[in-house]
Amino acid sequence: MVVYLTTFAVFLLVIVAMAVGYIFQRKTVSGSCGGLDGIGIAKECDCPEPCDARKKREARAARQAEWKKNQII
Question: Are 61 and 53 a contacting pair, CB within 8 Å?
């Protein structure tokens, strides 16, 4: 039982240390290779034209940004 509690405590300490490091550095979480941006890919799919669902999401985000911009003024 002591081994399990010790292991749990070590994992908990590591997770807390990672969280504190993330909070203070304010860096994005990324893999060891830097992710897709490291090889010059801006998005997950390299399609020349986004799909309809993505177009709808982008249009919705643009409307919300415009609405927020108008609310501030």
Answer: no
What contacts 58, CB < 8 A, 6 or more positions away? 50
Judge whether 9 and 16 are in contact, CB under 8 Å: no
57-53-69 Cα angle (round to 5): 10
User: Domain for residue 19, yes or no?
Assistant: yes
Would you give the DSSP letter of residue 50? -
Name the residue with higher pLDDT: 7 or 42.
7
Q: Report if residue 70 sits inside a domain.
A: no
- The reply to whether the predicted model has a pTM over 0.85 is no
Task: Give a yes or no: residue 55 inside a domain.
Answer: no
Give me 29's structure tokens.
Answer: 């979480």
